[in-house]
Design brief:
The structure is a homodimer. Chain A folds into two domains: about 70 residues, Winged helix-like DNA-binding domain superfamily/Winged helix DNA-binding domain (Arc Repressor Mutant, subunit A); about 120 residues, Rossmann fold. Chain A has a six-stranded parallel sheet with strand order 7-4-3-8-9-10, with helices on one face. A two-stranded antiparallel sheet of chain A has the order 1-2. Helix content of chain A is about 45%, strand content about 15%. Chain A is globular and about 65 Å long. Chain A is built from ten helices and ten strands. The first copy, chain A, has about 220 residues and is of the alpha/beta class. Chains A and B meet through helix 1, helix 5, helix 6, strand 9 and helix 10 of A and helix 1, helix 5, helix 6, strand 9 and helix 10 of B. The structure holds nicotinamide-adenine-dinucleotide (NAD) (2 copies). One nicotinamide-adenine-dinucleotide sits at the interface of chains B and A. One nicotinamide-adenine-dinucleotide sits at the interface of chains A and B.
Chain lengths: ~220, ~220
Amino acid sequence: GIPDATVARLPVYHRVLVSLSAAGVQTVSSEALAAKCGVSSAKFRKDLSYLGSYGTRGVGYDVSYLTYHISRELGSSQPWGVVIVGVGNLGRALISYRGFTSRGFAIVGLVDNHPDVVGESLSASELASAADLTIRPLVDLEAIVGDTKAQIGVIATPADCAQGVCDRLVAAGIRSILNFAPVVLEVPDGVEVRKVDLAVELQILAFHEQRRGYE
Amino acid sequence: GIPDATVARLPVYHRVLVSLSAAGVQTVSSEALAAKCGVSSAKFRKDLSYLGSYGTRGVGYDVSYLTYHISRELGSSQPWGVVIVGVGNLGRALISYRGFTSRGFAIVGLVDNHPDVVGESLSASELASAADLTIRPLVDLEAIVGDTKAQIGVIATPADCAQGVCDRLVAAGIRSILNFAPVVLEVPDGVEVRKVDLAVELQILAFHEQRRGYE
Ligand SMILES: NC(=O)c1ccc[n+]([C@@H]2O[C@H](COP(=O)([O-])OP(=O)(O)OC[C@H]3O[C@@H](n4cnc5c(N)ncnc54)[C@H](O)[C@@H]3O)[C@@H](O)[C@H]2O)c1
Ligand SMILES: NC(=O)c1ccc[n+]([C@@H]2O[C@H](COP(=O)([O-])OP(=O)(O)OC[C@H]3O[C@@H](n4cnc5c(N)ncnc54)[C@H](O)[C@@H]3O)[C@@H](O)[C@H]2O)c1
């Protein structure tokens, strides 16, 4: 399949192409396009080859065709509805992060099980979304997924309840889960779980720092 | 160089090897070791080949030699001191995440510039570290890095002040930075910045969800 790193770059390519076609540019070389996206032209060409897209040697890429092609790959069903379960420190940092809404993700549901948290209302401007949202109890999870047609669940709860929350998200119809809790979730076939471990970022930094010591 | 994904797996290999040598195991096949680490044996052998480490066909790997070799690559200067600048929602989620301390990272400094936050004391048990820590003002950043010999800086501030914070970390001697703020930081040669964008995780999930629709 297509490598994750390539998938992660496609929205960047799409944004640059959209601004080029808005500026009336018809064709563009892979060097110029790659430079605007902050990657080498070899990496750019390699990424597009995974989509079966090749420029014409000496002419480059057709901007409007390539914009259409990438947006079809990325999916037109934007915005993607996201439900966040666990509205603690991490959940709140995710809620106010503008990087989600700017890429076509809308937070459509907030769920928690702590009596002090449930019932709290977050304003549309804080969520950068269309409407205010109230933090709802766990018992409402199925109704929220059903009403909003959310497609992605984010688990930001403690580890001990993460599997239970995951099972309920899957039973409600969610097939894509982003998990922060430090447990390995068991899911049926057809459900994809991505696990984030920010400690890995520190490990990579430490590994390189250690090697710098030898230079 | 060694791919990041390989670097991220080395601590897992190291933990498994440490428990095998504690159990008195002398040699182990790459299949058995890979299975314990949750990877294919082909990926395991490929990872170790980056370190110049090859098992003996039919015999496998020498557990104590391989443990020593990987721990040398990972660096023995654990624990690595980490200073977190910006103790808001994200900063607090990072502070209480057990995944950092369990991999040899100790939070040795907390810095913020909001009068309500500066002066707050966090207990050693909340930090899973040796001592209580008080959140200090930005003006103390250089003294904290000097006193603690911290090697890694984490930026969890809003975007508009992130470059300024980065410059001060670098001037204080930090050469490894984990940046969450949505800006591209400029740093001199010799300083490594890793940027986290959790929206990329959602993009990858959405990309696969979109493709599932075609199946
Ligand atoms: N993977 C990483 O890199 C990383 C980094 C930081 C934190 N974490 C993890 O993220 C999780 C959240 O961290 P935090 O600092 O925000 O913790 P937190 O305690 O501030 O927040 C957890 C929230 O989950 C809620 N909750 C508890 N049980 C629940 C349930 N059954 N259903 C719904 N909500 C429930 C709590 O009421 C609370 O609001 C933890 O598991 C932590 O280990 C992971
Ligand atoms: N990259 C990602 O995936 C991701 C995800 C979530 C949040 N974020 C980003 O992380 C940052 C923090 O998010 P948050 O939700 O914790 O925000 P927050 O407002 O809760 O916390 C920010 C903290 O930084 C402090 N601060 C502000 N200016 C400072 C300065 N000059 N020096 C020191 N401290 C300063 C504030 O007092 C506050 O405590 C934001 O930039 C946000 O966009 C990134």
